[in-house]
């Protein structure tokens, strides 16, 4: 049989399969610490095989993440450099990033429209209010394995709770078994929703994403969808859009077609990559 590991408790794995959630152990000579929540496995009495992963985040461990909701709020003040780094890292890891503006009850119209304008050519921007359990725009996007990332106190845990509450009616057996159980360990667990799974974790920080040293300077611009239309105007194919002559990106920034803030943060990340190469 095939299934998805949704929970791990010592040497016991909860596997979601066509016939429901089954608790299984791994084959004797297979290391338990090599099987992660999010893994697609083949099992019989025991787990026999792990299918190749598309990615693996490490803190907390979670495999095969499809979508990441990078969450911000008017309070605490967003760190857009962090947001931009997360967008780059998600793309490197084959994760589809979303920008989620939470706490719309506290956000002025200005705030949401500034953010939407800044990111309109970059990634989908959604709005939620965990306080009022207003999560419809988010729910629509949930498919595959989804997780939250972002600064502390933006409302990630509140959103996960809001989603879980709304879903508990339709997940049937699964939710009854795991919904109110005490979580003593800090391992991640997947909750089934209508069209996918949400990872119940404190949320991912930069620590769990690939190290900056894994990107080459010349690749960075390729992770900027808002730069893409202007790249063909760069004279040099290896243009880093730093201070080169006849650079399509620099021109587009001057003309206001690419956001100054996005570009300045691009330069900061580029500098960090160069600095990390010197050691
Ligand atoms: N006003 C308001 N407060 C919220 C909202 N979502 C979360 N909070 C509050 O923000 C604080 C941090 O939320 P939490 O979910 O713990 O954030 P996390 O650190 O990202 O997991 C808590 O006091 C929440 O009650 C919201 O939509 N509106
Ligand atoms: Mg939290
Ligand atoms: Zn250029």
Task: Describe the protein's architecture and organization.
With 279 residues, the protein is an alpha/beta fold. It has 3 domains: 2-52, Nucleic acid-binding proteins (OB fold (Dihydrolipoamide Acetyltransferase, E2P), Beta Barrel), CATH 2.40.50; 58-207, P-loop containing nucleotide triphosphate hydrolases (Rossmann fold, 3-Layer(aba) Sandwich); 214-277, Ribonucleotide Reductase Protein R1, domain 1 (Orthogonal Bundle), CATH 1.10.40. The chain has 8 helices and 13 strands. Helix 1 (80-92) crosses helix 8 (260-277). It is globular. Guanosine-5'-diphosphate is lined by residues 102-103, 105-106, 129-131, 152-158, 203.
CATH fold type of the largest domain: Rossmann fold
Structural class: alpha/beta
Q: Give the distinct bound molecules.
A: guanosine-5'-diphosphate, magnesium ion, zinc ion
Q: What is the beta-strand fraction?
A: 15-25%
CATH superfamily of the largest domain: P-loop containing nucleotide triphosphate hydrolases
Give the helix level as a range of percent.
Answer: 25-40%
What distance separates the N and C termini?
48 Å
The overall average pLDDT, rounded, is 88
Q: Looking at the structure, what is the overall shape?
A: globular
Enumerate how many helices there are, as a single number.
8
Extract low-pLDDT stretches: 167-185
Number of domains: 3
For the biggest sheet, the summary is: 6 strands, mixed
Strand segment count: 13
Radius of gyration, in Å, reads 21 Å
Name of the CATH class of the largest domain: Alpha Beta
